[in-house]
Amino acid sequence: MLDNVDPFIGTAATDLPLAQGLAATWWWPKPQVGNTHPGATSPLGMVSACAYSGAYPTGYGRYTKNTEGVPEEMFEQLQASGFTHFQQSGTGAIRKYYNYVRVTPMVQPLDVLGEAWPLRDEVAEAGYYAATLATGVRCELTVGTKVAVHRYTFPEHSSARVVVDLSCGGLDVELGRTVPLRAQVESMGHGRAQGTVVMEGVPLSVYLDVDSPGWRQMLWYDRRLIDGGTRLDFDSIRHTTLRPFGMLFMGPAAPGQTIEVRLGFSLRGCDQARQNLERECGQGRPAFDAVRSRTQARWGEHLDRVQVEGGTPARRTVLATALYHSLIKPCFADDESPFWPTPGPFAFDVCTMWDIYKTQLPLLAAIAPDRATDLLESLIRVCEEEGNFPIGYRMARGADRFFRQASALVHTALADAHALGRAGLDWNWALVHMVGDLRRMYGEDFFEHGVVHPITHTLDLAYAHHCTAQVARALNDKSLADDLENRGRQWSNAFDPSTGLLRDSEFYEGGKWNYSFRLLHDMAARIALAGGDEAFVDKLDRFFGFGAAPVTQPGRRPQAAEMAAGYALNRFEGLNNEPDMEAPWAYHYAGRPDRTAQVVHAALTWQFGTGPGGLPGNDDSGGLSSWYVWASLGLFPVAGQNLFLVNAPAFARAVLRVGGGEFVIETSGHRETPVGVDGIDRDSPAQYVQSATLNGKPLHATHLSADTVHRGGLLHLRLGPEPSAWGWGIRPPSLSEPPATPEVTR
């Protein structure tokens, strides 16, 4: 899989062939750009490194901030004023952005620092990024888990320099700048320097070791050198008093001479930053190739946890890159929490749970279970320290910053982890926090009235009560479990029985149709509320555009009337947005897995491709890419229910390495279908499961327990070109129905 990764996918505005068939009826309201970056990353590591232009939202690229339609360009061409660290991956508007510690190789005076030069000859691989600036400097970047290494090859020059700007943070867009509050910079000589800047309450420390024999090193302030100075201290910085500051290394460069810059990072001071640097780079020079090789090996080991056979070259590239994007975030910085002093896991860039809880967290639980457990331990600690489970958690303080998006989503991942028997967590203590968190924010109104607006929070809170009840019952607290379960049944208060849809309310980035087909814990009762199977399927068919005419997508600067007309369609938003990404599998609960097959096939065929414009919308920290991985495997996790739904896969054979074993999905009758640039015949119809076996025994249900998948085994799916009766009779489990029929029928 490693050789198929293309980090440039998603870095430019969506550029997919015009959709046909079912996919042509879907309407995309959100930004048509992946918002990824091609910089060097390590699997779930703390540090990234990429060319910095100041563009939205990663600092890389050409686009300005946008919330709908085709993004507008800030710059006519790719450019960079240096190379920064801690980029976001695929996010949208999260208010502030990192891009800290800008390193700029220059052959100009310090006065022009901040000027951007065109980029050419870009190369990106997992763990590696390179480009040439118009100044003639070849720039290569790699990272470890807590370090970055830059290698610059200068043209011949009498006064080349490497400038480190510690004041830089954020983007060149309105409200995108982060201003340091306090800072300290020290030059120790012999190519070594260190500094700490406090950004949004977080002390970010860096320790540098620059391999530049014979060069001078100096501090600078306001683009003026401080000759002979060894330390700068800023006790209080304001927007009005901020002037750029940092360190500089300067000297003659012979043709082809390389300068290596090694940076260790920490959130617990310069000493720990130095230790991190020494641990990953050693004390010898140079370190670039060794760090790059180790990171590439880590990527290979992680990406090999999903293997496929068959597929066109483009489909394999899209899958490999989707898996790669799924494993960039969250950032794990073990023993680095600046907010509590004890060692242990610390995770940030959980941006946001609303984006990742349905798809990415179950993927981590399957292929990186230790890290998934570490994430939950970190989130429990956040709850202890800040009083609530976060919906999104950045490096900065403020765990409730994203509370408007949703409520109580961590409960789903905790319930799944407990059902899988994950060790390493104090489950009684976790339950205390799960229960307490149910009463925060919108939860208090839900507790008192059984319904809350925005109405989607009613669904969130009812579901979280159900998830918490499962943990309480497993821990033998029957009284608590019964009370939580009763409150969990109040999901029905969110629906209007006269329409079978959610009640009128405010909705976060969607409408009531987008949210009305969420996979609840009692889908049988949900379908009955809508009027039964046929009525429910009719509503789903309308939502997914069966029989509807093609629509035109929003362009650049869409007008309000255009957007209003699109929203009035009440249509599936494709994979352009998160609220309805699980809706295709709602058909399973009404006995129509064939419809799921059609919708998913259309999405995999038309909504993803190769090249920079190959994503239909923001990747959102890997939430979208994780959806693609699961859909390609023919599985979909139902977060919080210890459950997977089964569908026709996109590959003839796939292997999911889970724990110490393998879960294999193999097919007979599989037909290759195109994607991306190799889509010569895109009108090939969907394939449907005709019959299935699990470990050689007939499987008549369209679902598997997560325990079954995580234990490993062999799922064989016989595929065909026409819908079959498979899965029509046995529905996935629902709270109000008797215990589910066993997966395997003898």
TrEMBL record:
InterPro entries: 6-hairpin_glycosidase_sf (IPR008928), GH-type_carb-bd (IPR014718), GH92_a_mannosidase_put (IPR005887), GH92_N (IPR041371), Glyco_hydro_92 (IPR012939), PNGase (IPR050883). This is Glycoside hydrolase family 92 protein. Residues 5-266 form the Glycosyl hydrolase family 92 N-terminal domain. GO terms for molecular function: carbohydrate binding; peptide-N4-(N-acetyl-beta-glucosaminyl)asparagine amidase activity. The keyword Hydrolase applies. One of its GO terms (biological process) is carbohydrate metabolic process. GO terms for cellular component: cytosol. Residues 272-720 form the Glycosyl hydrolase family domain. Keywords: Hydrolase. The keyword DNA repair does not apply. It comes from the Bacteria.
